[in-house]
Amino acid sequence: MKRTTVVLWILLAAAAAAGCSTVASTVASLPGMPASVKPALDIAQKTGEKALDAARPISATEEYYLGRGVAARILAQYPLSRNEPLTVYVNKVGQTVARHASGPQPYRGYHFAVLESAAPNSFACPGGIILITEGMIRACANEDQVAAVLAHEVAHVAHRDGVNSINQARWTEVATTAGTEIAKQYGGTLGQLVAQFEGAVDDVFKTVIVNGYSRAAEEHADLAGVAMLQQAGYNPAAMAGILEALRTRGGSGGMLGTHPDISDRLANLRGVTQPANTQAEPVRTKRFQSVVAVGRSRP
Amino acid sequence: MIGCMVRWPRLWPLLLCLWGGIMMAPTPGPAQIFKTVAAPQQLYDTPSFSGTVVGTVPEGAEVTVITASGDWYQVEYQGRQGWLPFRAFPEKKKFSLPNLLQGRAVRETRTDEVALAGKGFTPEVEADFRRQHPNLKYDQVDKIEKFAVSPADLQAFRQEGGLR
């Protein structure tokens, strides 16, 4: 009899976890079923749902809100450039390479903006906001190199490198937050989620601004960026060109990252650069120079 | 042991009822129509990002779902068949034994449902976060997102630069 009861309980739990409320209710109301069956079914269902939620990946909309938080924090340090022609130009270059990114477009698409800073930097926020400093644009020799920087950052977004830097334990908490006792200590579920959101923004911000991505992520972004340049019609050699220029210039942060060493990244690119159609490159370089010249003449 | 074996037959109707109920729970039906929620999505010839892109589905487009496989949906859009990743239709995943056994159900999703799914990072969370951190530059983030280059200007820019 005991074995029969165990089998029955397992099936009841499975039915409840499966969301078969009709079957579960029917079973619970069967003659002779103990009154304790109903609470047991509820617990089984909630446990099943939580276990699956904890394992779920961050959704495209969650990534979007996370990226906005990271961008808002970066913009608190670097103001937006007031150079409208440069902003329009960067958006045109950025949208041109982003349409060749692998994988689906972010929830609200890619957005590009220029930061008012002389330091050569560029940042990719989860969800598709790409930021590049005026200093980085000036470090580029031509439009193709600007495209290379933006393609590298787009690749970080497409590969979800920012999202992957969120502490896994924190994300598990986010996914399972729902009216728990812990949540009440934060002032309810919303309070707990806001605290976790702040932690996640901090995780990504530190990766993007301070620590940099992993060696594998940087090398992947370089290679994916080269592929985007090739598909868009830019010169794929521009990726190695801007890395070389940055190495000569020195510094760190943004596209330079903190590791691996730029020499290793250049070695990673060796042999993958494909032939380019450079016929229109002079036209692109000319318009790059005219836009950058306008920026230089501004007060 | 003997007593246990004697009682088993009496339980078979109940066990069959349970199993039948589990298996008859909602599962993906053929030819369901639903809308893409995320921004333009690329349509692949196979359920893999390494597949060939055979088209693009704009945000809000209605597609006919043919079947589901893992994290991919085979769909038909404007007479063309292909595969879209599940991220095109973000939704709350419910734990479901039939779905585990037969694949996840395909449902139409809406933006508000998506935003609230799983009580993760939602507009409500962002609003509270913004209130707590007035020094963060969300106004500039909004400005960045509103900025757009017209498709005509973008096309002219690509054409002039010999780009695709």
Written as H for each helix and E for each strand, in order along the chain, the element string of chain A is HHHHHEEEHHHHHHHHH
Q: Biggest sheet of chain A, strands in spatial order?
A: 1-3-2
Annotation field: number of helices of chain B? 6
Q: In what range is the share of β-strand residues of chain A?
A: under 5%
Which value, in Å, is the CA radius of gyration of chain B?
24 Å
Indicate the multimeric state: heterodimer
SSE ordering of chain B: HEEEEEEHHHHH
Intertermini distance of chain B: 76 Å
Describe this structure in words.
The complex is a heterodimer of chains A (299) and B (164). Chain A is mainly alpha-helical. Helix content of chain A is 63%, strand content 5%. Chain A has a three-stranded mixed beta sheet with strand order 1-3-2. Chain A starts with a helix and ends with a helix. Chain B is an alpha+beta fold and 164 residues long. The N and C termini of chain B lie far apart (76 Å). Chain B contains six helices and six strands; from the N terminus they run H-E-E-E-E-E-E-H-H-H-H-H. The radius of gyration of chain B is 24 Å and the shape is flat. In chain B, 30% of the residues are buried. Chain B has a four-stranded antiparallel beta sheet with strand order 1-4-5-6, with no helix packed on it. Helices cover 38% and strands 20% of the residues of chain B. Chain B has helices at 2-23, 97-102, 111-116, 123-132, 138-146, 151-160, and strands at 32-35, 41-44, 53-57, 62-69, 72-77, 80-85. The longest helix of chain B has 22 residues, at 2-23. Classes of the chains: A mainly alpha (299), B alpha+beta (164). Chains A and B meet through helix 1, helix 2, helix 3, helix 4 and helix 5 of A and helix 1, helix 3, helix 4, helix 5 and helix 6 of B.
Outline the fold blueprint.
The complex is a heterodimer of chains A (299) and B (164).
Chain A: H1 2-17, H2 21-28, H3 37-55, H4 60-75, H5 84-98, E1 111-115, E2 122-125, E3 129-133, H6 134-139, H7 143-158, H8 168-176, H9 181-185, H10 189-211, H11 215-232, H12 238-249, H13 262-269, H14 281-297
Helix pairs in contact in A: 1-3, 3-8, 4-10, 5-7, 7-11, 7-12, 8-10, 12-13
Chain B: H1 2-23, E1 32-35, E2 41-44, E3 53-57, E4 62-69, E5 72-77, E6 80-85, H2 97-102, H3 111-116, H4 123-132, H5 138-146, H6 151-160
Antiparallel strand pairs in B: 1-4, 2-3, 4-5, 5-6
